[in-house]
Automatic annotation (TrEMBL):
PANTHER family: TYROSINE-PROTEIN KINASE RECEPTOR, TYROSINE-PROTEIN KINASE RYK. SUPFAM superfamilies: Protein kinase-like (PK-like). Its EC number is 2.7.10.1. Residues 272-540 form the Protein kinase domain. This is receptor protein-tyrosine kinase. InterPro entries: Kinase-like_dom_sf, Prot_kinase_dom, RTK, Ser-Thr/Tyr_kinase_cat_dom, Tyr_kinase_AS, WIF, WIF_sf. The keyword DNA damage does not apply. Residues 27-155 form the WIF domain. It comes from the Eukaryota. It is found in: Cell membrane. GO terms for molecular function: ATP binding; transmembrane receptor protein tyrosine kinase activity.
Amino acid sequence: MNIYVLKCALLIFFSSATPLCNGLLNIFLNTEEVQKLLGLDAELYYVRQGVINQYALNFVIPVSSKIDSLHFTWQNLGNLPLQYNINLDVQHYEAFDAPNLNISKTGLVPTSDQTFSIHLPCTALISSESDVLISINIALIPTPVALKIRRKKICMKIETGLNTQAVDAVPIRINSVKVFYYAAVCAGILAATSVMCIACVYVRNKQTRTAEEAPTNQSFTSFLPTTIRNPTTSSSYSSFRRMPSYSLIEERPTSKDLQDRIAELTIQRCRVCLQNVILEGTFSRVYHGTYTNEGTVEEEVLVKTVTDHASHVQISLLLQEGMSMYALKHPNILSILGVSFQENSSPFLLYPFHNYTNLKVFLQKCKMCSEGVAHTLTTQEVVDMALQIIEAMNYMHKKQILHKDLAARNCVVDNRLKVQITDNALSRDLFPSDYHCLGDNENRPIKWLALEGLISKTFLTRSDVWSFGVLLWELTTLAQQPYVEIDPFEMSAYLKDGYRLAQPINCPDELFAVMAYCWAMHPEDRPTFVQLQVCLKEFYMQLTRYV
Ligand SMILES: *[C@@H]1O[C@H](CO)[C@@H](O)[C@H](O)[C@H]1NC(C)=O
């Protein structure tokens, strides 16, 4: 089996193909068009040799305000003439200058390859998102076929004086389209390519690349040539030459900061009363306890601490990581309440406690009794939890803080399924199988890390997005270990080859598409948390609409 087939097997959900009775016909988007709309080097077939890709027809491709023409390529491959008629239906006519088709609305499908365009320029008078429906009817005998191709065209109102940058920054609504297109594109590859062909094109790609290679961003060159691509077409690397525009935020407190923060949060040890152990590692302990503050009000707390076996390094890491989310105030973030740090004894980190459980532990418990009476999560609950996490991440990123270790183990959840993100202090010791060293002394959450983090230890806001995808996968699998069968040392090669986590059983396609979208090779191709929010909110509404 060749590698592309394997890759596709991971990404494909299903593709229902309906053969047209007696029309041999191609209708597709050429490479240029797919590159323009979806940033992929591939062709996308709506009809290939008379076989309709229903799956591709079902997805609505968003069209950014900067693109004002849509292109389709078609050809009649058979001997019988095929009569067509094309209709265009636009939702907000006032947003567009007269839409215009550069072929006749009715006629015969050409017998040689023809590209036609639909010119749909925005007026820039109003901002809108319009559904555009392109109906192509082919008069086949005995039954005519009606293909409905959909686009969502975004138009921006441009006011004089507004700079273009501001216009660009308006979040574009994404659907989970891209991923579905990987799948659709893959379906095409499966149908049409041989190993030979792949070999040829691979060599050709390599040559093109050497010839065109320009000095680009160092940290990304190492995984340039391995995005999922269609081997039947020659590829352009234009999309990879863009300079990254995502933000890079530095957030670890300096030691001066750290001391200030500790000073500010210091509480008296005698006011803390430890009760029972909630979680336990080789040298870490997490307790439930109480804290009596100045006004003698007793409040319940969670206490993270270490045993006497802990080394200096471990203690300083506990403090540093415990302080990483200091001063964040958000309903979905569990931020630190106080620290007690005394000579000759282990530090205590205090967090407010309100009957929550560690999310990973909670999910594993759900799993253990999922056959019995206990609670299993519905899709709606999963999406709701995901949305809470997104809110928190949005807030953190706004505060210029990267999480860097977003995972179920670093969240807590209560019995009403309210989720809060926490820092990762002690997680390495409490969940040792989630962390690995790759030859260095750094114990990292390898299986949650984005490719750039694995390869060059770069960390971007979109690296948190990647981890969020894995967290979503944890939610839908009730905290299975991701990539159990993969050696941590092999992870970067595995990801570079285009492999990803498989779709969990019972996980709806829409949700899996969101995850897979978070795992785009190139950080810029991943959604932002703002986009994820729009996308999942919409999905949530769809779910609740029929209840
Ligand atoms: C329609 O326009 C596109 C691009 O603007 C061009 O590539 C194509 O050849 C045109 N098709 C016809 C039939 O004129």
